[in-house]
Amino acid sequence: DAGITQSPRHKVTETGTPVTLRCHQTENHRYMYWYRQDPGHGLRLIHYSYGVKDTDKGEVSDGYSVSRSKTEDFLLTLESATSSQTSVYFCAIGQVPRTDTQYFGPGTRLTVL
Amino acid sequence: GNSVTQMEGPVTLSEEAFLTINCTYTATGYPSLFWYVQYPGEGLQLLLKATKADDKGSNKGFEATYRKETTSFHLEKGSVQVSDSAVYFCALSSDSGGSNYKLTFGKGTLLTVNP
Predict the structure, then answer these.
(1) A101–B89: do the CB atoms touch at under 8 Å?
(2) pLDDT at B81
(3) CA within 20 to 30 Å of B35's CA: A26, A35, A37, A42, which one?
């Protein structure tokens, strides 16, 4: 199994509070991704990173920001959480030359009340 | 844009039954196709992949053939086990430039296998 951990694994928070989720990898993969999983939607890409300090938006990036200051860590921040951001969040990593084979972390279940 | 459509679940089978989960796609160019599996409480794991037309991906008794003429990548297994109970996701990759390939996922199909 790829060495990917996510923290926290579960979190309950209130609307309007900031939340940061962490993804940590030990594989030294260049690419990292944040997805959210919702019933009836499959997985949708939020943001991704193609190197330290290099990030770009996915299809559902509104309300989220990311940072990557080290190869091994990719942070996802909800600046002001809303109930629509209640979801399961997955981090994934990918390696060149092809990053389409991605390896997923165990997920973080976030509930915004 | 790219899209993946897979059969709606849930699918419930008895042990040793034959499994088919349909997947069709819309994409430009020549994407790679994937099946990922998610066991309860876990992240997604790559089950199999195919990178070009007529390729067959296989793993753990599961198979899927990349059919360009029908834009399909149906997942099959001849004899399912209780341990195959999971959610199955079909996905395709698209080249966003450079080495970055983005994945587009179907909505997932929940499979339950009863003893």
Answers:
(1) no
(2) 97
(3) A26
Q: Which two tokens stand for residue B50?
A: 């195919």
How many CB atoms neighbour CB A65 within 10 A?
Answer: 15
Distance CA A18, CA A44 (A): 21
Entry field: residues in chain B: 115
Position B61: which residue type?
Answer: G
Give the nearest partner residue to A45 out of B89, B98, B102, using CB atoms: B102
Please tell me the distance from the alpha carbon of residue B47 to that of residue B25, in angstroms, as a whole number.
18
- pLDDT, averaged in runs of 10, over chain B (115 residues): 90 97 91 93 92 94 96 97 96 73 90 96
From residue A58, give the alpha-carbon distance in Å to each of A3, A66, B11.
Answer: 24, 11, 31
Q: Which chain B residues have a beta carbon less than 8 Å from that of A43?
A: 44, 89, 103, 105
